[in-house]
Amino acid sequence: MEIYTLPNGPFMVNSYLIVNGGKGFILDPGSSIKPLLVKAESDKIEIEAIIATHGHIDHIEELTK
Diameter of the chain by CA atoms? Predict the structure, then answer.
């Protein structure tokens, strides 16, 4: 299992790309998950889910766009 961390947004929330065997998910997308999606695409990782641990705006702003 690999975990990639991306601090992002005005509150510098940590967003994560969790990968196992070519499949993965994004945890707490924050304000911008684009760098994690670019990483997933370049590494040919299939994103199966995007999960928010709770509804604070600094954790879900990307999902509201």
Answer: 32
Q: What is the pTM of this model?
A: 0.83
Residue with tokens 């760098």: 35
The pLDDT tens digits of the residues spanning 8-60 come to 888 888 999 999 999 999 998 888 888 888 999 999 999 999 998 888 887 67
Beta carbons of 1 and 7 less than 8 angstroms apart: no
DSSP string, the chain: -EEEEEEETTTTEEEEEEEETTEEEEE--TT--HHHHHHHHHTTPEEEEEE-SS--HHHHGGGG-
**Domains of the chain, residue spans:** 2-30+37-52
Is 25 buried (19+), middle (13-18) or exposed (0-12) by CB count in 10 A? middle
